[in-house]
Every structure is written in C-alpha cells, then in structure tokens.
Specification:
The structure is a homodimer. With about 550 residues, chain A is α/β, with parallel strands linked by helices. Chain A has two domains: about 250 residues, 4-Layer Sandwich (Nitrilase/N-carbamoyl-D-aminoacid amidohydrolase), CATH 3.60.110; about 200 residues, HUPs (Rossmann fold, 3-Layer(aba) Sandwich). Chain A contains 18 helices and 19 strands. Chain A has a six-stranded mixed β-sheet with strand order 5-4-3-2-1-14. Chain A is elongated and about 85 Å long.
Chain lengths: ~550, ~550
C-alpha cells in the first residue's frame, strides 16, 4: 500500500489557493505512485481560521471549494481537512473540524475530530462540536482509523487527563490495520521529538503503523513545522519528513525498515529555521516583499536582520542605524559590518536633532523636573517614529527586534523599539539569542563577533549597560522559564535556590508589564509558552505569589 | 424569607480585598435583616481570572481565602463564588467555577457551574470542568436551586442551542421553590433588558421566584453592570437593582408586588455610565489616580475627557492640545473651551518644530518622493510621543480617544493617536459618540456645541475632512454593524440595499486593519461585538466575502 503524504503550506481563508495547492500535491503524489493521499488538518482552510468561521459565508464557501476539489479527484482518494456545519437544531457548537475522503468526484466519507484542544494557543471548543463516534473506514481490504491531530495525543503526553474519550482505543477495539492522522501541530522547541515519541508509542501499543501528516507554514504567531512521520507497527520511525518546508513523498507504512529514521537537527538550527519560515510566511502571505528594521549594533537586531535577509532576500531588507547622543561609535560600525556581512542596505540617521526639538517642545511642561526614564523613552520612540516613516514611505514590513527576556520584564519601550508588524525573536530568551547567533556564525562571521562579545546596552543614557537594571541574563532566563513557562510561584522558585530579591523583582516586573505586552506586535512562538494567544493574563489584577 | 443581595465590585486576584468586601456586604445585609446572603459569580476571585488560575499558587490561595472567609460567617449563610480544583486523576479540565454555601464557620455546600460559556469574550472550557449533576439545597423548609450565570440562560436567548444540559429543568424536576443565580454578566447595550426578559420568562415558566445577583465593576475590556434582579413567581420584576454601582439590599422573593420595577435608563445614559465605571476601575484598580489625553477640538477627545473628568475627578485630568501647521485656530479654542467646561487642565504645545526636525532627519532617505500619508502619520506619532512623555513624567494613565468606526476601517495611526493604556470609547460607533455627547449636554453645555456641530476632521493636511476619505458616518456605522457585529457578507449587506462600492471598500479596510487592532489598547466593551477579546480574527488571511 502506497500512501502519498502531502506536507503542504495552506493560507488561512484562501480556498481557491489551497485547493490548487492540494491538487498540485495530489498529482505529485500520484506521479510517485500513491494509491491514497493524505494532507494536513484543515488543509483546505488553513489552520486556525479562528473567528472567520463565524462569517456567514465562510463555511458555505469552504463547502463549495470542497465540492470543486472533489470534482478534480479520480479513483485515487485524497483526505483533506475542512470545516463542516454541525446540525443547526442539535445542541452544540455550530461547526465541525472535519476531514473528507474524496474519491471519484465526490465526498465518500466525512470524519469529524473527536478531541478538541481548548488550552494554550487552541480554542477549538469555541467553534467545534466533537464527533460522537469513531468509525474505521474500509478500503482495499484494509481497515483504516482516520484521526485528526489531538485525536492521537494520548493522555500521558498531555498535562493531565483532559478527555473522557480515547479515539485510538475506540478505533482499535473496532479493529484497524493502520492509523492516519491529519495534523496542524504547531512548533515549539522539543515538539518534533515529543511527537516522534508519542506516535511511536501509539504504533507500538496497538501494533499498527501510523501515518502522520503535519502542516507546515507560518500563521500569525504559530509556526507549523511539518516533520511528518511514518511509524511502523513496531513503533520505529520509518520515515521522517523534513521540517519547515513543503514535501510530498510516497511511502508504504507496512514496509518496516531496519534502521530508525533520525531527526538530525539541533536546537539552534530548529529555532533559526522556524523563525525564517515564520517571518517569510507572515510577510508573503500578507503581501509584503520587503522589510525594514532598526540596527542598534546589538545582538537582537543583528539576529533579526540575519533571519529577515534569509527569509526575504538581503536585497529586500533596509536597516537604519539611528545614533543618539549616548550611542557609541562602535554601535554604528557594528551595524554597518553586519549589513555588509548580510548584503543588506543600511543607512545612518541621527536622532539628535529630533530629540532636542522634542525636549524643547515639552520644556515648559517639564520645567524643574529632572531627566528620567521619560527622556530615555523619547529616544526609543523617535526611532520607532523614523522606522514607521520608512515603512510607510516604502511599504516595508517593520520588524521589531526585542527578545523574550526584555519583553517579560518590560525592558523595552512601548511605541518605541516595540514598533513593528511582527516581533521576530520575541519568544527567544536572551541566552537563546546568543546561542542561535553563535550557531549562525559556525562557518563564517555573519553576525559581527564584536556584537556577540560586547556587553549588551540600550545606550539610552551615558555608559548604560543592561546589567545595571537587569539580573545577569542566565539568571533572568532561568527564573523566567519557571515563572512564565511553568507558572511556578515566587516561593517555589526561591525554594529551588534562586535569590529572593531577584525572583520577587522579576515577578513584579512581569506582572506590571502585562499592559505593554497587550499592545505588542504578534511574536513568533518557539517555546512551550510564548507571550501572546497562548497566555491570556488579565491586565488589571492584584494577585501576586 | 429575607435574602440579602450583595452586588459588589471585586478585583481579580485580590483575595484579601475581596474577602473584606464580602464581609462588609454580608454585615450590611444582616443589618438590614437578611436570613441568607448571595454574592456574584467568582465574587472571591473577581471575574474573569483568565490564565491566572494556572499559576501554581492561585487556586490554593483562593481556597485559603475561602476558609478564612468561612471563619467569619455565623448562622446566617452566604453564597460566594470561587475557583475549586477538579479531581487531578479524573479526566477533564483542572478547575471548577464554583459557589460555596458558607455557614457557621465552614463550607456547607459546594455548587459547580454546569454550562460553561466558550464563545464571544468567554473562555470557560479553557479552565473549568462542568458539573455532572444539579442538586437542590434544602434550607429552612425551602428547596433552593443554586445556579451560576450561564446555567440560567435558556436556549431561546442564545444564538443557537449550545448545550445538551438544562440546569433549570434538572433542578425543577427535582422540585425547587426558588432559584438563586450568582452572575458576572458583562454589559453591552441592550443586555440589562435582555436579562429582565430572560429571567422573567424562567420564573414564569417554572412558577418560582428568581433572585439574580450580578457583579459590578470594570475588568480590562469588560464592564459588569450590576442591575441585579428579583423576579416573582409570576414572572414580574419585583426588584431592579441600580446599574454601574455597588448596592446591598434585602428582599423577600416570595412577596409579589403589584407594579413591575422599571429600568429607567436610556441608551446614552447607560453607555455613559458604563464607560465612566470602566475607566474609573481600569485606572484605580491598576493604581492610577490621574490621566492625560490629547485634545484635538474634535468630539472623540471631548467625550473621552468628559468621561475621564467624571471618573477620576477633573483635577486629575491633564489635556494637551497640540496644533500642527494644518490645525485650525478653532480646534485649539474648542479644546480650551472644553477644558473650562470640565474644569480640567489644558496646555498647548505646538508640534511644528518636531515635525520639521523629523522631516529633515528623513530628508536624505525620502528625497524625490512626494509627501503622502507618511507625513500625516508623523504628526499623529509626534503627538503620541509627547503624550507618552507627559504620561511617563507625571505618572498619568494616557487615554486614547478613537471611536469604533475609525478603528474598524483603520482611520487612525498606530503608535500615534492609538497610543494609550485604555481606549475609552473604542467600542462607540461615531454616531453613538454624537448621541452620547448630545445627551451629556442635555442640561448645560459640557462639550462645546461647536465641537458637536462642526464637520469632523483629522487636520493632518490642509482643509482635510473625515468625509474626504470615509463614507458618511451614518452609512459607515450601519454597514459596520452588519459586517462586524453580525458577520454578514458583503453580498448580503449589498442585498439589503447598501451601495456596493462603499460596502466593498469597508470590508477591505476592516480586514486589512486587523494588524493595527492587534496592537490596540484594550477598549471598553459596550456593544455585542467589540474589537478585542470577543473577536479573534487572524491577521494573515485571504478570505473575503
């Protein structure tokens, strides 16, 4: 049995475009000898469509596209993901997260998702009604269990037992020879390994092969990494699809291999390729072919520029270095060195004159009051203003360059360095920014070593260093991981050996800066808990622990 | 039977403060002769706590506070809302939305919410597991059905049949003499009337009285309006609590009245009082005692200033009028007239010099390119920068003044006039801004009539008028209501008689500006569908209809 896996990149809401992508992948798989083709979850729709599904014509147009697509399909079937209606008078949510088995010009089977994730970045119970039953499908003498994403995630791989249903068990009890899974499973560091382990365990437990087809592509904050899999009945990985790119390949799930297919990608490489894909898709899917950004001479803007140059082409990136009275000459030089290494354009404009003009404008109101963080923020906001002007004039996507550590504790200026349509590295803790930058320089200098080696500084007052305000980054990041990603209380973190003053300072800063993050640009998610749609904190609140 | 209704204003996560509020209200009700006291949904926690519940110490501290509170309660019972654990090894979500019956120093009953809204602004299936059964509670010879918020919302009052459970029916079949409901039901225009009708119908259908206790207070984008109710067994409203303020009152639900209690509040009055409460609570609950804002001489900033002066006291409001080369002298004069009427401070600073300085800074990059929207945005962003400087220097909450119509079509500048911690009137369509402003002037001029009567203008280029770019506001608002609030397609809106070109222009503008709204300040919600947490659209998407 030859199954074609179409690891494709759909665009949310683009029914005609997604239908075309599906047909092209279908034909490619047939050319490779496929007898059945599988595509990702909601492949016709893009994942996640979010509240678009409530638009009165969204699901009708989706069903039209499904009919059109079915018309293009001959005797070799394809499984595509789409959104179906739930019965209008039966209680429950209005829609189904569905898969259609298309064959000979029509929809032969409809399968509905049973387990609907409603945690982290997922909101499926907002839209979808779960399937009441799980039924194997007979085809060519085999009984196939068709599942959609979460349906295959077993209890041991979730934070707690979430569901009172187990689709794999239900299917298995009815007798199946194989499991197919249509997924749109977003990336975070460690997720590809986790999926291999989880799907391997499912195959091994039930002694049947599993074909797992995952989406790829960036969608707002989410990055779908592909890494589709075929696991043999012995639980061993027979096929490991590449990450972060489209791929079509035909495999026989019943043909077991001796050697396990490996996932040969280290952490910084995965992070880098995830961010390149996330940025490229954010820009291109929303119609931008170029980007601009501020270059400070620091490591955050340098890494962001490197990712942007890779994603959109160096000729499409415009950097601005905007020295203030407090900037070192080295920062400007480092920016130009970076631009040269990357082959991107860089211009220098001084913010000295606007800064003086703005201070003068506010002079009568501020008379007698000492300079403070107000004047630091002014500089960052003038830079944001200049970058937005460049973005407006030349239709660039402005990239904001802040990292997760500074966004967490609010060591960033709203409407200043936070300006931009996309926050490329806002889910990378500073220590990871260094790690990825060093990895990027593994063969030759891309990010100037001087940028990597010097002490980080915002350069908003004379001789300022990040560590005047912040704890050392390895301390900060370790505490942030416990506080933000694992929701531990300050007492618990202190009990693990961290300094009480530092922990309480970080907790207060993270909580106080919720309002800034509320207005932050969407940031590409690469950890288990990014700021953004997966973390929904109230702004006004008085809990501290 | 005398029941005390404690319509109180809790603060999210403030367990000690909320416990104090509950005790004070409990004592006030006892002083009035209460035999049983009821408080709102999650009254000990504040609603909604959102992802705070995932913090490892949140629910433990909540349960500690509940124990403390129980210790303060003697023979007269009180019902309080709290978050409970779900059993760690039973499948489902980790928590319960719960009510505790406190009596004689301990928790005598625990009731769990059955219907968990997961639509619009609500995310309850993200956190909570529904109750499996609904059990009446016997007390003083009466059988009481205790329900939490959504539990009482009958199918006919929802968009579609959402649930396969009906808690009122389940309780009613077991025999009850009365229904109590603990609610945290947020305001939108028409909601108080809807609740009266819905709760009246429940009481009438089951021939039993209903005591409905709603929360009041602002919480981020949500405004809880109170308007608690007591409905007799005949379905008639016996008691109508006030809106938008705390109130404790003792009533006998079995004593029917001849005359129905009325809700004597017109639309603009409700909108105004909702926004005053929303702004006051946002500021005070997050520690701000003062606010600043830009005064343009236009109606949006004028109404925002009036609401702010009412909410925080005129002596705590600082307005800036910031004329540009394109500002009319009348705009500055209107701003000072407004400030005089309100008794707030107003200062004038010209943006002419910073505007020239910024244009000069970018001159080398923009040479040969004509002035365009870039230079318009520069002016708005300089104003945003000056306002943020004032906010930073004097620790004011900056209020942003945009209305819903302009936010919908993106007729506003990100990092410019969109700067601010709270968007006070961002859910008021422009036509409602006029309506509320006229209502505010019903006895004397508060908003200068000149501001109300002149043609609206952003004054970012010579002789600019809003209607050079936008359709007339009554046309725009009517189409926006159909498109944004009711999710109709352009074809459906055109079929109702609107101009096709205008409808398609609006649709395109609304969709294209999703990215701006993603970075907007939280806006106080007063319609059925505000931009913000109740409307979750992808930024990158290609659906248009």
């Amino acid at each position: 049995m030859k199954i074609g896996i179409a690891q494709i990149n759909s665009v949310v809401g683009d029914f005609p475009g997604n239908a075309k992508r599906l047909i092209a992948a279908y034909r490619e798989c047939i050319d490779q000898g496929a007898e059945l083709v599988i595509s990702p979850e909601l492949s016709l729709v893009g994942y996640p469509p979010r509240d678009l599904v409530f638009k009165s014509s969204f699901v009708p147009k989706c069903l039209q596209a499904l009919d059109y697509l079915a018309g293009e399909i001959r005797e070799i079937p394809i499984l595509v993901g789409y959104v179906d209606h739930h019965h209008p008078r039966q209680p429950g949510k209005p829609f189904r997260n569905a898969a259609a088995w298309l064959e000979n010009g029509s929809v032969r089977h409809r399968i509905w998702k049973t387990l609907l994730p409603t945690y982290d970045v997922f909101d499926e119970r907002r839209y979808f009604e779960p399937s009441a039953t799980c039924q194997p499908i007979e085809w060519n003498g085999k009984r196939i269990g068709i599942t959609i994403c979460e349906d295959i995630w077993t209890e041991e791989y979730l934070d707690r037992p979430l569901y009172d249903r187990d689709p794999i068990k239900e299917l298995s009890e009815k007798g199946i020879d194989m499991i197919l899974n249509l997924s749109a499973s977003p990336f975070h560091l460690g997720k590809p390994q986790l999926r291999r382990s989880m799907i391997g365990a499912v195959a091994h437990k039930h002694h049947i092969p599993v074909v797992y087809c995952n989406a790829i592509g960036g969608q707002d904050q989410l990055i779908f990494d592909g890494h589709s899999l075929v696991v043999g009945a012995n639980g061993r990985i027979n096929e490991q699809f590449p990450g972060f790119k489209e791929a079509c390949k035909v495999i026989n799930p019943f043909q077991t291999k001796h050697e396990e297919a490996v996932l040969d990608d280290c952490d910084p490489s995965q992070l880098y390729h995830a961010l390149v894909l996330g940025l490229r898709d954010y820009a291109q899917k929303s119609g931008f072919s170029s980007a601009c950004l501020g270059l400070s001479g620091g490591i955050d803007s340098a890494l962001t520029a490197a990712i942007a140059a890779d994603a959109l082409g160096p000729e499409n990136i415009h950097g601005l270095t905007m020295p203030s009275p407090y900037s070192s000459r080295g920062s400007v030089e480092d920016s130009f060195a970076l631009a040269k290494n990357l082959g991107i354009r860089c211009d220098e404009v001084s913010i000295r004159a606007p800064f003086e003009s703005i201070k003068k404008t506010m002079h009568s109101l501020f008379e007698g009051k000492p300079e403070d963080v107000t004047e630091e923020n002014m500089q960052a906001r003038i830079r944001g203003l200049l970058l937005m002007a460049l973005s407006n004039k030349d239709n660039h996507l402005l990239l904001t360059t802040g990292n997760k550590s500074e966004l967490a504790v609010g060591y960033c200026t709203i409407y200043g360095d936070m300006c931009g349509g996309l926050a490329v590295i806002s889910d990378l803790p500073k220590t990871r920014v260094y790690e990825v930058s060093r990895w990027l320089n593994r063969e030759r200098e891309i990010i100037p070593w001087n940028t990597i080696d010097k002490a980080p500084s915002a350069e908003l007052r004379p001789n300022q260093k990040d560590q005047d305000t912040l704890p050392p980054y390895d301390t900060l990041d370790a505490i942030l991981e416990l506080y933000v990603e694992h929701h531990l209380s300050t007492d618990e973190i202190i009990a693990r050996g961290s300094d009480e003053t530092i922990v309480r300072w970080i907790q207060r800063r993270v909580d106080l800066n919720e309002w800034k993050r509320h207005q932050a640009a969407p940031g590409l998610r690469v950890t288990t808990k990014a700021f953004g749609i997966g973390r929904r904190m109230p702004i006004v609140q008085r809990f501290s622990s």
